[in-house]
Amino acid sequence: MSITGKWFGFGLDPLYDEGVRKLRGGDFDGAIAVFEQCLGATENPKVREMAQNDLMQACVTLASREPDRAMECYEKALAIFPHYADLYLRRGMARAASGDFLNAVNDATAALTINPSFAEAAFRKGLWLHQIGKSDDGVQWLQKASSMSRIFAGEGFLKGIEDAASGKWEEAETRFAELANNPAVQANRLKDDGDRFAREGRMHDAMLAFEEAARIAPTFPDIRCRFGQTLLEADRVDEALVEFMQALEVNPNYVEAWAQQGIALRRLRRDQEARNSFKKAYELDPNHPIAAMEFGFG
Questions:
Q1: Cα–Cα dist 202/194, whole Å
Q2: Could you report the per-residue pLDDT of 153-205, keeping only the tens digit for each?
Q3: Is-contact 251 280, C-beta < 8 A?
């Protein structure tokens, strides 16, 4: 089986293959219909898992492109993955966009019940509580968000929280909106999403999050390295190597990128280059576990 086939499951089921083709071609309605048909017909657990993941991806993408259908799309996704906190938050954002702040708060609460450390959900809950007249509670949730993630602990966000606490909600919301459009903030949010997905074992979702983060912030070496690691997980070794090399162009002293590059080179049977990478990682940090194992005791 090809690398692409191994990652996406091509060749295991003709219905699944058709759904993937529609998804990659941008026919999201068609993809959803075919994946639903596949789920009703297949007895293969691997095909079922892949069809569920791609059905969710199609729903989320369609929701972002056709906001008037967002609720329909998130309902479908949540029927399959009722334990995914990010889907509740996405549905809450769709509700907030339509002015339904009460149910948006309920969705943020559901997301936080599943993942109590979900800083983005805490932040959104704070904003939406203000919209339903519970501004003091809103400030408390904004403050909780700032304690959960460095993204919401930056100077700009802290000033916005200070404005909100002083009753200057209009100024706070303007500041938050400006920060939300900052590429660095967007990229770091996606990176945090990717890290969370990886911890949950959702490697395909993690790869998509890191890929988008790298597109937004191509000069962030840690993001490029994380993207490379998910590509390695998917056996897309050549592509992973490119990401590690680009991370090292930005930061030649990035130990993790040297170590991961060594792994990629070894899997490509470029053994001497791999050893050189492990050696460089070891020189930078003799205590790095991969470098120590591959070179320090090699």
A1: 9
A2: 888 889 999 999 999 999 999 988 888 777 877 888 888 888 888 888 888 88
A3: no
d(CA 181, CA 191): 16
DSSP class per residue in 109-137: HHHHHH-TT-HHHHHHHHHHHHHTT-HHH
The closest of 6, 26, 45 to 204, measured between CA atoms, is 6
Distance CA 188, CA 199 (A): 16
Classify 203 as helix, strand or coil. helix
For 169-183, give one letter per residue: b (16+ CB within 10 A) or e. beebbebbeebeeee
Residue 63: how many CB atoms within 10 A of its CB? 24
- Length of the chain equals 298
Specify the range with the lowest mean pLDDT, choosing from 21-35, 111-125, 163-177, 283-297: 283-297
pLDDT of 236-293, one tens digit each? Answer: 999 999 999 999 988 888 889 999 999 999 999 999 999 999 999 999 988 888 888 8
* Cβ count near 119 (within 10 Å): 22
Task: Give phi and psi for 46, each to the nearest 5.
Answer: -65, -45
- Please list, in sequence order, all residues whose beta carbon lies within 8 angstroms of the beta carbon of residue 292, skipping any fewer than 6 positions away: 282, 286
Q: Name the one residue in this structure whose structure tokens are 């991961």.
A: 260
**CA–CA dist 277, 43 (Å, integer):** 44
Instruction: Report the candidate in 71, 67, 39, 72 with the shortest Cα–Cα distance to residue 55.
Output: 39
How far is Cα 266 from Cα 278, in angstroms, rounded to an integer?
10
> Which DSSP string do the residues of 183-246 spell out, in sequence order?
HHHHHHHHHHHHHHHHHTT-HHHHHHHHHHHHHH-TT-HHHHHHHHHHHHHTT-HHHHHHHHHH
- The tokens 């988008």 sit on which residue? 212
CB 197 within 8 A of CB 212: no
47 within 8 A of 38, measured Cβ to Cβ: yes
Q: Choose among 127, 130, 185: nearest CA to 156.
A: 185
